[in-house]
Design the sequence.
């Protein structure tokens, strides 16, 4: 009797193990299939709202608004889509005839994925190809937020005759991790590695399922703050793509390994007008004094600099106070007309 019972338990245990292995095998496959189907559906539901520009074998998506006046080119922050700059873009277009172009870098928004490496230098090269493909003539007002500030600086250093003014919106500095980690260990290189690994490890199909079931309520709330109401669903859909996950990993690693060019090439701009827009300490009180020092370093890179403080905003000034960023851009447009 005991032998029979023992065999029965062994059989049940074996069956449970086989079932568990089958489930563990099927879950990733089911997740990948769900992700693939969802992305195909979303691509039909949400076509690109802007232009797809061929830069030589792949396409970049840009949002372009405004008229035939001065050209403003915006480089958003790490993994940030152009949609998050729509409010700034609209505010500038409503008060000037400038043409405002906001860029989706490789793999972000509706842009095709880009090859490794994704350093600021590589992204500045990509930006060069884009501006050439758009047939933009004359110098542009280059705006860079966060990581985009590094890209903007490298581009301006390489092409000084093609930049009329540089606007750095709470821009990242090449010494961020070295300086900020002295006050907060979480702000070191390890934090960038954590960002890269966490995004690479995210199982997007399962995450999508949780979103569809309403188990991630913060996602829609955050999206509603970042973009106008009519763009929320598209914004959420593009935030769940495999291409964006890869782009965030690429750009985070680019922040680790790609600081040599900004440090050696993009520090001396003569009398190029530079506006430094600096956000407040909210959420980063521990290391904000060091951040202010790094922001002040930008003011030494030209003989023609100014600083605009946005002490009431977080790092994402374009979301918290788009009118303030628009005002900085409009002031640059006015200066470009005077100098021209």
Sequence:
């Amino acid at each position: 009797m005991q032998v029979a019972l023992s065999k029965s338990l062994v059989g049940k245990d074996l069956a449970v193990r086989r079932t568990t292995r089958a489930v563990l095998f099927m879950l990733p496959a089911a997740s990948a299939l769900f992700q693939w189907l969802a992305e195909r559906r979303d691509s039909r539901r949400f076509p690109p709202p802007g232009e797809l520009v061929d830069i030589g074998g792949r396409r970049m998506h840009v949002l372009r608004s405004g008229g035939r006046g001065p050209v403003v080119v915006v480089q958003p922050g790490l993994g940030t889509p152009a949609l998050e700059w729509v409010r700034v873009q609209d505010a500038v277009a409503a008060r000037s005839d400038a043409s405002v172009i906001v860029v989706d870098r490789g793999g972000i928004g509706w842009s095709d994925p880009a090859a490794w490496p994704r350093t600021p230098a590589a992204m500045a090269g990509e930006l060069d190809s884009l501006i050439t493909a758009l047939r933009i003539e004359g110098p542009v007002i280059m705006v860079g937020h966060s990581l985009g500030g590094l890209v903007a600086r490298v581009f301006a250093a390489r092409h000084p005759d093609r930049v009329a003014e540089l606007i750095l919106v709470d821009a990242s500095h090449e010494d961020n991790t070295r300086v900020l980690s002295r006050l907060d260990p979480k702000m070191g290189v390890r934090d960038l590695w954590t960002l890269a690994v966490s995004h690479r490890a995210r199982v997007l199909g399962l995450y999508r399922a949780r979103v569809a079931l309403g188990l991630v309520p913060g996602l829609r709330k955050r999206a509603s703050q970042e973009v106008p109401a009519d763009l929320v669903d598209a914004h959420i859909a593009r935030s769940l793509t495999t291409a964006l996950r890869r782009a965030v990993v690429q750009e985070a690693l680019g922040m680790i390994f790609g600081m040599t060019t900004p440090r050696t090439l993009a520090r001396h701009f003569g009398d190029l007008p530079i506006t430094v827009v600096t956000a407040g300490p909210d959420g980063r009180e521990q290391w904000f004094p060091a951040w202010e020092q790094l922001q002040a370093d930008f003011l030494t890179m030209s003989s023609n600099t100014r600083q605009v403080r946005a002490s009431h905003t977080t790092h994402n000034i374009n979301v918290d106070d788009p009118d303030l960023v628009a005002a900085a851009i409009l002031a640059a447009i006015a200066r470009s007309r005077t100098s021209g």
About this structure: The two ends are 99 Å apart (CA to CA). The first helix runs from residue 2 to 45. DSSP finds 14 helices and eight strands in the chain. The mean pLDDT is 90.
